[in-house]
Each structure stands twice: as C-alpha cells, then as structure tokens.
C-alpha cells in the first residue's frame, strides 16, 4: 500500500485522505465509515459515523447512544469531499457492507467481514469490481469448507428433537449478533418452544423490526416456572457458557454453532456436547471466488490466515500483499464475544495433528 494511495493504513485504521474518513477505525476519529456492527469493526468514541440504512438499529445498539450516525442505503453513492462512497451487501450479518470508494476513476473495495453462503437474515453478498480489494482471511486455509447450511440446521433440529424425547433442554451457544439469528431462522420451529439470553433477545428483536423472519422466542430471564424449559431450545451467547445462567435449565445438552467447530478438538476443549459448523465468514472456496470476481489488480489481505492466502494468490499469478490491521480481536469472533473476557482461542490442529499457525490474540 503506497503512501499516496487512495486508502492507506494508519495507526487509527484504514484511511481515505482525499475523503477525510476512516473505514472501521479502531481509535476515535472525526469521520468513521463502518462496515457492520460487530464490536471489532464498530468501535465507540468517533464523532461521526456513516453506516448502512439496513444496519442502522444494530449500529445504534452497539455504538454510544449519543453518537452522530448517518445512514446510506445499499448501492447509493455519497460524495465525501469529491470521493464517491457506496455500500454493497457483504452477506455477513444484517446490514453488513463492503465499502466501495471511488476517486478519479480509481476504485477500492473494503470488504469488511463477508460470506457467499446464502443467509435468510441478510442481503446476499454482491460482487463488486475494483482495482484494489481489501479482504479478510479469517478462514483462509484449504481445510475450511463449510457444509451446506440446510444440512447443519437439520443436525441442530435433530439434536434438539432427540434431547426433547429424553426430557432434556437443549442449550445452543451462538454469537449474539448474527449467528444466533441465523439459528433462529434455520431451526425447525415446529419442535417446541425457544428461549433466549437477554443479549440475544435484544438483537433478535432488532432483526424482527428489520423484517427478518425468525422463530418466535421468549426471554428466558422472564420465566418463573423452570419446568417450562424441559424439552425447549435455549439460545445464548458463548460467554454464558460455564456460568450460573445455565443452572435454571435443569438437565440439558449443550451445543455450539461456529466455524471453529470444524477444527478437531475445539468442541472437546470447550466441554460442549455437540458442535455445529456454522460460520458467517467465507470459507476457502468462497474467498477465492470473491477475490477472483473483483478482477482486482491488487488484493490486500487482513485477519486470520492472511500470509497463507497471500501466498496462494501469488502462486496463482495474483498480486497480493498482507495488511496488518488491528481487526485481530475478531480472530476468534465466533467463540468470543464482547461479553466474554480472557477465554482461550481454540488450539488449532489439522486432522493429522499437525499444528496450524499460531493464533494472534
Ligand atoms: Zn463481523
Ligand atoms: Zn471482523
């Protein structure tokens, strides 16, 4: 990334000098353009934010209540000091966007987090052509290939049904913003009642207000008679695992929905009964497709396995460079969430037991 290029990496994050704005800055700035409401992208403390119209309520929940927030619907261009800025669906969570930045014929796209797998809780990923593409690489290794979501939801529903037959509750842990709602959209809602942790319920209601069709839920904290939980499904954030919150549910089985569940040992390490492979990030084939479709001259790679993705792109004749952003807090995003502290990232070992590159925390 050249010093005088349209987007540069500064101590506060990705910066567009001509436009005078940052994209997902990790320090307080005057003008922040934000790709989505996950806490390692939507940092608090900036003076002014630009977010997608579709993600407005989630941004308001996650940012300071007094923050100045303006919105822009997907696909509409906004002129900021002569720079054209537009949001395009990233398919990651509700309202998530890639940011397209155009100045004097030069186009950059900052993808934020994204996936290509269909997801009924958000707009589908849009391929956007550009000269320079900045991509994440959270799951940028050939071992990461997601099973079809229908198969995974079938597994989750089957697990719930079997627990119910044994008179047990089923407690599934899922990242409270995005993953939990995806579970609620894909689960077989005819099986029984579904309860939620407070952090999940609040965001779920915001999804419903945005018109996303989700299974009906009840806030678990408001239930007086604990017998109600017998045979039900309870959706909670990963941070609620191993806490007293679980006690009220009586005999139960635990499940975890995350891309990391593909890694052998991740489930056992966390003392979870069942792991379900469900990710809101692109897997290895999706990363390749997304990158190719941009037709970019240069690809900048951040997050996770950036070195490995860069090597693969270079070997395949593409100009790619790793970019050391501070989105590293997101590296274990699906195991950790903002309410959890000090939880260890999974030890990654390939099927043969060969250790994978060390995790940056
Ligand atoms: Zn994210
Ligand atoms: Zn991220």
Topology diagram in text:
Elements: E1 7-10, E2 13-16, E3 21-23, E4 31-33, E5 48-52, H1 56-62, E6 68-72, E7 78-80, E8 83-89, E9 97-103, E10 106-110, E11 132-136, H2 149-165, E12 169-173, H3 179-186, E13 194-196, H4 198-209, E14 218-219, E15 233-236, E16 252-257, H5 266-269, E17 274-276, H6 284-294, E18 298-302, H7 306-315, E19 319-322
Parallel strand pairs: 3-4, 4-5, 5-6, 10-11, 11-18, 12-15, 12-16, 13-14, 13-15, 16-17, 18-19
Antiparallel strand pairs: 1-2, 2-3, 7-8, 8-9, 9-10
Bound molecules: zinc ion (2 copies).
One zinc ion (ZN) is lined by residues 36, 38, 41, 92, 113, 330.
Q: Report the structural category.
A: alpha/beta
CATH topology of the largest domain: Metallo-beta-lactamase, Chain A
Instruction: Quickly count the domains.
Output: 2
Which CATH architecture of the largest domain?
A: 4-Layer Sandwich
What attributes characterize this protein structure?
361 residues, alpha/beta, Metallo-beta-lactamase, Chain A, Rossmann fold, 2 domains, seven-stranded mixed beta sheet, six-stranded mixed beta sheet, 7 helices, 19% helix, disordered C terminus, binds zinc ion
Tell me what the structure shows:
The protein folds into two domains: 7-144 and 281-330, Metallo-beta-lactamase, Chain A; 149-276, 3-Layer(aba) Sandwich (Rossmann fold), CATH 3.40.50.10890. Mean pLDDT is 89; it is low at 328-361. It contains seven helices and 19 strands. Strands 7-8-9-10-11-18-19 form a seven-stranded mixed β-sheet, with helices on one face. By secondary structure, it is an alpha/beta fold. The protein has helices spanning 56-62, 149-165, 179-186, 198-209, 266-269, 284-294, 306-315, and strands at 7-10, 13-16, 21-23, 31-33, 48-52, 68-72, 78-80, 83-89, 97-103, 106-110, 132-136, 169-173, 194-196, 218-219, 233-236, 252-257, 274-276, 298-302, 319-322. Residues 38, 40-41, 113, 303, 327, 330 line the site of one zinc ion.
